[in-house]
Structure of Thioesterase II family protein:
Amino acid sequence: MSIADDVSTEWVRRYHPAAGAGKRLVCFPHAGGSASFFRPVSARFSPGVDVVAVQYPGRQDRLREPCVTDIGVLADRIVDELITLSEKPTVFFGHSMGSVIGFEVACRLDRKGVGAPYALVASGRRGPSTWRDESVHRRDDDGIVAELKLLNGTDAGLLGDEEILRMALPALRGDYRAIETYRGDPGQRMCGSVTVLTGDADPRTTVEEAEAWERHTSGRFRVRVFSGGHFFLTRHQQAVNEEIARELGV
C-alpha cells in the first residue's frame, strides 16, 4: 500500500508536506539524532521538493521503543517504509551515521530495482569500508557525554540538563553500538552518484577517509571540505543546502 505524499508515519516525517512536488529528498539523522534535526532543510526545499526525514526508534515520540542496534537491520526496516512511497526522482542526505544508513538503504533499493536515489549526499562520515576501532557504546554515561562534547554536536543546554540527557543516552548508546559494530562491504557500490561533505577538523573523519567513499559508487563522485569539526554543517548550513540543491537540480 502506498503512502500519500503529504502524510507522516511512524518512520517517515514530513514537516512541510508538499504533495505536488516533483522530486524527493530523504534525510537520515546522525547517532542520537532525530528527524526534527532536518526541519530547517525541509523549510528550505519545500514545497518544491517532498522532504522526508526518517525517525529511528528510541527517540522523541518513539522513546519507549528499543533502539535498533544493527545497521543492516535498521536499513532493512527503512527500506520497507520507503518502498511504500510514490516513485519520484530522489536524493538521499545523511549526516554521520545517517550517511552510512543512507548508503545501505540505497544499495538495498538498487537490488530491488525500485525507489533507489540517483544521488547520495554523505556528510561527516568516512567511507563505509574504512575501519576504526571505536567503543564509545561501551563507555559509562560520563564517557558518552565526553564524546558529545568532543564532537560539539549537542547543545550546551542539553548537556547541562540531567533529565533530558538521561532520556537521550539510551538512543545515543544504541546508535553508537550500531555504527561502531558496522563493517562495510569493500565491494559494495550504489548506482547513484555520491557527494561527500566533510569538516577539515573532524576528529572522527579525515579528508582521506572521506575520499574513500569513491570506491562505493559506480556514478560520479565529488568531495567538498568545509572548515570546522564533526558538525560543520550547522556553521555552513546555507552552503550545505546549496550542495543538496545542486544534486536535486533545483
Notes: The chain has a mean pLDDT of 92. Residues 43 and 205 are 29 Å apart (CA to CA). The longest strand covers residues 193-199.
